[in-house]
Amino acid sequence: MLFNSIEFLIFFPIVTILFYLIPNRFRWLLLLGASCFFYMWFIPKYILILLVTIAIDYTAGILIEEWQDDPSRKKKCLIISIISTCLVLFIFKYLNFCSANFVALAQHFGWAKPDKVLSIALPIGLSFHTFQSLSYVIEVYRGNQKAERHFGYYSLYVMFYPQLVTGPIERPQNLLRQLHEEKTLQYDHIANGLRLILFGLFLKMVVADNLGVYVDKIYANPQDFSSLDITLGMIFYSFQIYGDFFGYSTIALGCALCMGFTLIDNFKAPYQANSIQEFWRRWHISLSSWFRDYLYIPLGGNRVAIPRWMLNTLIVFTVCGIWHGANWTFMIWGFAYGVLLILERGLRNIHFFDKIQNKTGKHIIQGINIFKTFAIVTLLWCVFRATSFGNLRDVLSAWVRNGAHANQLHVNVTTWLALALFVCIDLILRQQRFDRWCSQRNIYVRWSIYAVMIFSIIALSSVQHYPFIYFQF
């Protein structure tokens, strides 16, 4: 079920109202049933896959806690749990990719050609709830989280509908604890939750979807457009994926907050970062912190010799790329970020601007760094967006060669207005979330903002309805 659908417009208020009407002891059952219904709206049978990973890690958590005094058995249980859960992820997300590459390799070397390439449909949001389930098992193993004995509550922790499909990826110390708390109806929760939902729908339906129309044209036929058009298409995609994913995360936060649950903020003005490292602190925060805590630090992080740290960085970002999708372009995208972070650390030791002391000079340097970071991120989004190496080659080739002689990309006024408004809002919200900023404005300003966003959603939404980009992951 899509957040920007009529079905969800009916589903959400019914679930929220029932949540407050029924006794607290039955609320977990309502939310679990609603989450199952929400997930099964896409492909019903794939809920069985989700139940398999839930059963594996629920059992593992209990066994790990019971074997606290037996480190060997506890570690074996953790390893079995991780391998089993990751195997489910591998089969449904990466087996097709491996099969296709094996067939291509066989054809290249003239081996016996396999009868057919595997084609297994990817369950929506599999990577997200797999990582959320793994974080629970690891935290129980580390002794930071008590094993959940109630199967229903643990299932709800993995399946909580607002963040089930595209995150944010929650930790058990935050979400599982809240599921056991009794929630009371509070005006601030409802008001701020609805503000977040409205803002998220605006980002998705007005900003991201309008930009997506032009991005699709560029990447479908790059040879038909000038270098300037392709540059514009790349910039549009940067804001499309930001508006799309930020929009989903914001709606998820709003839906949860309406019921009194607080989820992690997944974005903090990432395009205002002045370095690649800061960009990753601000972009998809729940994922980058997951890799930091469960892969980067266990590998040794930055507490090792420089060559080992470089290897750790490359491993983490290459795996991050693979997590996003079974495609060589994602792997290259992640690896490139690892290389950039290594180069950035090396250049940090070269003090180009130490003599600049005045505030104006420092602001200019900061502006240059922000522009540089955005330009690099935008170029790498091109690798991320390309459907294949061939598509990436075509886009980059046209970008370099086409000059200004090709057809122009005719962008309507609606798209320019939506993008300009988004950029202004993002600048304002550098240090504060939309609902909190909005609550501090007077009633006339608040309702003017609501009116503009509601009008925009009704009148300016794209005629093409795109699924959320991160659904494919």
Round the mean pLDDT to the nearest integer and report it.
90
Number of helical elements: 20
SSE order in H/E notation?
Answer: HHHHHHHHHHHHHHHHHHHH
Q: What characterizes the major β-sheet?
A: none
Question: What is the CA-atom radius of gyration, in angstroms?
Answer: 23 Å
Give the tally of structural domains.
2
- Poorly predicted segments: none
Number of strands: 0
End-to-end separation: 16 Å
Shape: globular
**Helix share of residues?**
55-70%
Strand content: under 5%
Structural class based on helices, strands and sheet pairing: mainly alpha
Oligomer: single chain
Chain-wise SSE layout:
Layout: H1 6-21, H2 27-40, H3 47-66, H4 71-93, H5 95-109, H6 126-142, H7 151-159, H8 161-164, H9 172-180, H10 187-220, H11 227-258, H12 276-282, H13 285-296, H14 306-324, H15 328-348, H16 359-385, H17 389-401, H18 413-428, H19 434-439, H20 443-459
Describe the protein.
This protein is mostly helical. The chain folds into two domains: 6-102 and 120-184, no CATH class; 189-267 and 357-472, no CATH class. Helix content is 70%, strand content 0%. The protein has helices at residues 6-21, 27-40, 47-66, 71-93, 95-109, 126-142, 151-159, 161-164, 172-180, 187-220, 227-258, 276-282, 285-296, 306-324, 328-348, 359-385, 389-401, 413-428, 434-439, 443-459. Helix 3 packs antiparallel against helix 4 (71-93). It is globular, with a radius of gyration of 23 Å. The mean pLDDT is 90.
